[in-house]
Amino acid sequence: IPEITADHPEVQAMVEGAMKTVSFSEETMLSEMYAEALEGAIAELMKTNKDRFPGASERGGWVVDNYPLSEDHWSALSEKRLLPDIVVCLKDTQNDGACILRRAYLASRNENNSNILEGPTDEALEKKEDDAGEGMEDTLTSEEDQSPAAAEEKG
């Protein structure tokens, strides 16, 4: 039986085939999964909601927020013939997006503020409890040292 090495033509062919199989990146696979999920959701909605509103076309009229995210996602949608008619891209380029950040903060400021204020308060209470526990242990230890039974044991 001849020895088979990495240079053997059959081994080379197997490795090349495996590399082609694995060449689909995780991003590509995820993109295809997203496109399939979107296709399934649209098909299901079209079955259950045939009369969306008077005069609506059979296909279209969908708003997909924050998707497609990448070139791979666009390609996956293109393969499934699910390309959007209109794409709207909103960007806040002034002051590194400060306007959107401010609006997001204001929308949840009560929750954010309470979380910010609770953190130090909780930490302070824990520290106070720990300090009080240590102080209590010190008091108990010194009381034991001063008790008559402790004096007899020492003497």
TrEMBL record:
Compositionally biased tracts (Acidic residues): 131-146
InterPro entries, alphabetized: P-loop_NTPase
Signal sequence region: none
GO molecular function: kinase activity
Keywords, sorted A to Z: Kinase, Transferase
Positions of the UniProt region annotated as Disordered: 113-155
Ligase recorded as keyword: no
Designated name of the protein: KAD9 kinase
Organism: Prunella fulvescens
Recorded name of the encoding gene: Ak9_1
